[in-house]
Specification:
The complex is a heterodimer of chains A (111) and B (113). Chain A is an all-beta fold. Helix content of chain A is 0%, strand content 54%. The mean pLDDT of chain B is 95. In chain B, strand 9 and strand 10 (103-104) form a beta hairpin. Classes of the chains: A mainly beta (111), B mainly beta (113).
Amino acid sequence: SQQGEEDPQALSIQEGENATMNCSYKTSINNLQWYRQNSGRGLVHLILIRSNEREKHSGRLRVTLDTSKKSSSLLITASRAADTASYFCATDENAGNMLTFGGGTRLMVKP
Amino acid sequence: DAGVIQSPRHEVTEMGQEVTLRCKPISGHDYLFWYRQTMMRGLELLIYFNNNVPIDDSGMPEDRFSAKMPNASFSTLKIQPSEPRDSAVYFCASSLGAGKTQYFGPGTRLLVL
């Protein structure tokens, strides 16, 4: 199976609610990244968390990393319809040169 | 900087034809990646370059696929001959350093009839 598996695969919430997406991975990493993809567009980097960090914030985004469980979560607070997109986690497995992307979580925020 | 530039944005071709996808990475970036995205298989890394040198092409599906990076500002992904199962969105991305933030182009949506 893939490094960087997201959970859930799809999530539908109302505007104003919080959205939480989870990611699990298998190998050691230097960092874990979250990306967003709007329909028909390329991926856009959201946030990077290093292996020695446990939590990071950027605006309405909060990312946590638990290296003992090899898992991360992305929380979007006070969601907006414009947050509707697919969200991917990516890891530099075995501290390598490339990133391995998970299958993504499709988030729909209803106005 | 204009970001990663890909061309064409859309390509429709017939089975058996040669397809060439082009990418201009962000100036100064030393890594370039080619990905393919489909509903069935998600985002797959095909090949990546470091300082214009191909490092890992294990993701290239078969010999019909080839990629080159003749200089730091240009790369091509060629499919010859193309098949309907090659229909996908092909993304190019670049980064400054290994395992760092990747900047994606808008993608080329390929349809092989």
